Amino acid sequence: MTEHYFSGRPQATSDPAEFSVVLRGREFRFRTDASVFSRERVDFGSRLLIETVSLQSDDLVLDLGCGYGPIGLVAAAFVPRGRTYLVDVNERAVGLAQYNLEHNGLEGRGEVRMGDGTAPVQGIAFTKVLMNPPVRAGKALVYRLVDEAYAALAPEGSLWVVIQNKQGAPSMAEKLKATFGNCQDVERKAGYRILCAIRHESGLHQ
């Protein structure tokens, strides 16, 4: 079986790379490596999510499946009175995210944890969960992450997902509606959609 970026312990030979990029008007520098999603640049979907998501200065944010950390680092930079947690099952990604958090001067605003889904952050009620889902790992796993995100949100907290139409955006929208009772199409661009679902206090998890 071909190794993918959702592998817990990547076997591919390490091949580090670095690049700089401006996101939400701020420059970030990222170290990446083999067996990590979109190692050469911040992918279009992640950029679209980063530029679209509504962030409040005191948000408690979870970057679920953080990779080397671009979504979570930007969140950490723009929620100065809150805190951002970055979680990934891939140990190489977790090491890179930690390095990038520190080397972008954001270690005081965020925390990187390794593990599957929301298991490493049990007991924390987030106001925002951000996800560029690991679609190559399969729909069952991605939908489990949606269920876990719902459970991890505080009342009126929101899940923001970026996904391509050709990789299941319509079915993801239906999944969000079934789970949260709502789903807003916030942005559409170049075949990508940003979907947002809110955990209303009166809503029932299906």
Salient structural properties:
about 210 residues; alpha/beta; Rossmann fold; two-stranded antiparallel ribbon; 5 helices; about 30% helix; globular; disordered N terminus
Q: Can you put this structure into words, describing what you see?
A:
The protein has a single domain, classed as 3-Layer(aba) Sandwich (Rossmann fold). 28% of the residues lie in helices and 30% in strands. It is built from 5 helices and 9 strands. The chain has helices at residues 44-52, 70-78, 91-103, 139-152, 169-180; strands at residues 17-23, 26-32, 60-64, 83-88, 110-114, 126-131, 153-164, 184-189, 192-198. The chain has a 7-stranded mixed beta sheet with strand order 5-4-3-6-7-9-8, with helices on both faces. The chain has a two-stranded antiparallel ribbon with strand order 1-2. Helix 4 (139-152) links the parallel strand 6 and strand 7 (153-164). Helix 1 (44-52) runs parallel beside helix 2 (70-78) and helix 4 (139-152) packs parallel to helix 5. It is globular and about 45 Å long.
